[in-house]
Amino acid sequence: MKYGKSHSFSSSRVNGQQTKNSGHSGDLSEDNQQRFTGNLQDMAQLLEHTLGSNEDFKLRWFDALGKYKAIMVYLSSMIDPNIVNNDILKPLMHPPARFEEAAMSPEQLKSVLLHDVLYHCKGELDSDFDKLLESLLRGYTLVFMEGMEEGFVFPACNIAMRSITQPETEQVIRGPREGFIENLETNIALIRYRLPTPAFRIKSMKLGRITRSKVAVCYLDGIANQELVEEVISRLSGIDIDGILDVGYLEQYIEDNHFTPFPQIQNTERPDKAVASMLEGRVIILVDGSPFALVAPSVFSQFYQTTEDYSERFVMVSFIRLARLLALAFSLITPSLYVAIISFNPELIPTEFAVAVAGGRAGVPFPSVVEVLIMEASMEVLREATLRLPQQIGGALSIVGVLVIGTAAVAAGFVSPITVVVIALTTIGSFATPAYNAALALRLLRFPLVFAAGMFGLYGVMAGLILIANHMLSLRSFGVPYLSPVVPGNFQGMKDTVMRAPLSSMKKRPSMLHTPNAQRVGDKVAQKMQNPTHNTLDPLKVGNEKWGKPGGISTSDNDDTSDGGSD
């Protein structure tokens, strides 16, 4: 049977084959759509022809309200039997007594079923076969009735999901312990309960010609720049690929520069971090099936900051940020500086230390640049092996690799002790960078810097750092300069970069985002925080006016607060 010729469907099939859509979204155009017109037999044959070879495809015939022929279609591996039985099938097969004898037209029947019979709160109607089929494949339950030109669609999906747990890659000492999971609706709920405001907006779309992955763009209306929102949606809409399995796919498509090691869009698995970014005027991108969210636009300073930086007092946070930046610089340039000084400028180090270094290098058959490259490559291999192994084995491997292999390499004269110390400090410094993708970029850039140091000494190191800085200055994230707010300079924005100013002094949202509502802290609150009155319970003032005695608390007051009074 050629379903394109069936009298029960309107379709543009030619010679039994449906015209393929060349668009990125996979949606059929209006003249390609196939619609259900009420013939149950043909609908059942078409569904069996399309999905009949699947073991979990189920099609059940029954009599709705005791006299209307109907079929129910579902995938048994994805539905909740309790919802299907109690909220859909049972009300249809055991209707209220007042409807047993009544004769109804299809339109009346449609209204009665939706509003008087069925218990499910999310039922809807649709006649487009492609949309019905997509709903079925996502775990929805479909019900068709003879003579009715629309089918009922009920969400009854029950797929086992990971519970909400603490984020694995962004752990904090002080802060929420919730992280995103793979379910999009749960992730949106985690954001929404932190933002109980009607300004919270969600723009959804489906990407991937085969996977039809749900993508949600979240922002705050009146805070996020509308041109930014439109640009994000425009870039996402231009993606044409067969499947989107993670937000990393989207990141690679919508970033400004594809040939750079530096991440231009931040990812996070923390709902509180996503909400904080939205409050600044940024846009959040979520994908069904991914426990990460994208934050756009992003600048370099975001990658060494954590949500915990805003939960602690600004003095301690500023110290920790300085330590992170020191570790970042240390992990990038220490190996290359070591190679440059040892190979070209040993006179820069103290004599006693130079003698100790020379004694340690005695018997090492390789020049310092080769020695450092071998150790760096070994550490990268060891780090990758530790990540990919199970957690219980990975921890033991890292300890064994560092202690045993390092000690054996020094004892064998393969590398010098000072080289092991330099590489170890470099590796520890790279761990201090909160963002994994930013730390990965610095790890990659260490190798060309070591090559430059081995060839040109300190001149090579400086030339390499200048090229890196020049490259970072050229980067943009949705038009925002990557080194903002340092370059171009903005005093208000610099309050939250290398060091963090008190929250009360950060009155404005980042100016680089051009938000319609730039005010973050009220003027009265900021003024009160800058001029606080801490004498609420000052012992020199509390109670001194009692009995008209400004000199102190009266004797009767002491009697009232005594344990038992005097005899």
Describe the structure.
42% of the residues lie in helices and 12% in strands. By secondary structure, it is α+β, with helices and mostly antiparallel strands. A hairpin with a 3-residue loop joins strand 3 (57-64) and strand 4.
Strand % is 5-15%
Q: Number of DSSP helices? A: 18
Strand order of the largest sheet: 3-4-6-7-5
The unreliable regions are: 1-32
Ends apart, CA distance between termini = 110 Å
Mean pLDDT: 83
The largest β sheet comes out as:
5 strands, antiparallel
Shape: elongated
Number of strands: 14
* Global Rg: 33 Å
Considering DSSP H and I runs of 4 or more, what fraction of the residues is helical?
40-55%
Structural class: alpha+beta
Write the layout of secondary structure elements.
Layout: E1 9-10, E2 35-36, H1 40-51, E3 57-64, E4 68-75, H2 81-93, H3 106-117, E5 124-126, H4 129-137, E6 140-145, E7 151-155, H5 184-192, E8 200-207, E9 213-220, H6 226-237, H7 247-254, E10 266-268, H8 271-280, E11 283-287, E12 293-296, H9 314-343, H10 351-361, H11 368-388, H12 391-411, H13 417-431, H14 436-456, H15 458-474, E13 476-477, E14 480-481, H16 491-494, H17 523-530, H18 555-560
Antiparallel strand pairs: 1-2, 3-4, 4-6, 5-7, 6-7, 8-9, 9-11, 10-12, 11-12, 13-14
Keywords:
567 residues, alpha+beta, five-stranded antiparallel β-sheet, 18 helices, 14 strands
Short description:
The protein has helices spanning 40-51, 81-93, 106-117, 129-137, 184-192, 226-237, 247-254, 271-280, 314-343, 351-361, 368-388, 391-411, 417-431, 436-456, 458-474, 491-494, 523-530, 555-560, and strands spanning 9-10, 35-36, 57-64, 68-75, 124-126, 140-145, 151-155, 200-207, 213-220, 266-268, 283-287, 293-296, 476-477, 480-481.
